[in-house]
Amino acid sequence: DKRNIIYTLDFLAEVLWSESESREAVVLWGAAAAIREEIGSPLSPDGKELRDRQLDRAGTVLGEDAYAAAWEEGRGLTWERAVEYVLVEVLAAAGS
């Protein structure tokens, strides 16, 4: 179910953000946004407002170019590749 994948990506992005893994968080938020658009499941107005604030902060932390690159990387991931990204790149890096 792609809705569950979206929720999981958003949750993991929040965890990464709280752990100062800003780039990885933006990649996952970008992937979740792309899947939301694909299935026609936008954020609620309150959720969008919160996410916009988070993304603004992430842009400040990462800088404009790094933020844009991470966002586009995430948006370019299929849902399968987004799951693989979490399993292989994010969780593997956390274990090392």
Report on this model:
With 96 residues, this protein is an all-alpha fold. It is built from five helices and no strands. Helix 2 packs antiparallel against helix 5. The mean pLDDT is 93.
> Gyration radius, to the nearest Å?
12 Å
Question: What is the 3D form?
Answer: globular
- Measured between the Cα atoms of the first and last residue, the distance is 30 Å
Structural class: mainly alpha
Estimated helix fraction: over 70%
Describe the main β-sheet briefly. none
Overall strand count: 0
How many DSSP H or I helices?
Answer: 5
Which regions are unreliable across 5 or more consecutive residues at pLDDT < 50?
A: none
Topology pattern, helix = H, strand = E: HHHHH
Mean pLDDT: 93
Q: Please indicate the percent range of residues in DSSP E strands (runs of 2 or more).
A: under 5%
Structural key phrases:
96 residues; mainly alpha; 85% helix; 0% strand; globular
Short description:
The protein has 96 residues and is mostly helical.
